[in-house]
Input
Amino acid sequence: MSLTEQTRLSQFDRHKAIAEQVIGTGTSRIEDLAERFGVSMMTIHRDLDTLATQGLLRKSRGIVTAVATSLFEASTAYRMTRNVAEKRALARAAFEHVEPGQAIIMDDSTTGLYLAELLPQRPPMTVITNFQAVLKALTGQPDLSLISLGGHYYQWCDAFMGNLTIQAVRALRADVAFMSTSAITDGVCFHQADETVLVKRAMFESAKRRILYVDHTKFERRALHALAPLSDFDVVIVDDQTSLEERRRIERADVTLLVAADDDRGVVVGDKSG
Output
């Protein structure tokens, strides 16, 4: 590895560590971060400016604050680093609901990237999405037809949103929609961004079956805008760290509950609500 590559890797790792530190604590003093990571004030400001551009952090008067709150969603770059094993387990469980010949809708959930990795195993199919990362992952795959939902591009989520996106979704009909959400409160899915909610609702309405996949942390968060109650989904997939209380709430919603186990076998335990 060249010196330049080592420097880039070190910088990438530092950015990731800074983001995790600030988002974990909520707020940090910039001076403290420079000391913690052993860099100059000039370097820490450059690092924080980069993370602020990515939508992760906000700088103000010597203080840096995490953007991931009930009002703001974290960027795709940060979400990709969180709960990876759980998301892979959720994706494996979701993949069992994919059949050759289907048209499926995928939102901008990072869990969908792990589902996208599996889709080439079950061709042919049509994938409809507003998520640029999924489009890139599936470009060039044989027997997979891609429909990109255009619109206004939002860098923080690497996805297209807005009226043009919604109109494009409404002109289509799919067999199944796979989506996630930022938070679940009292049996209702919520998201921080109203633009995201409007697109997800359009996807929901355009699909014959609706499948929600969420890891356990979504039950610990709050967000501003209501998307849909759990009872509106045909299948809800959770990871095996989801509390029994939340599992029972889902079962009472009269939907099919699947618990995706995070182990080497990728075991999925199904529970049909009664």
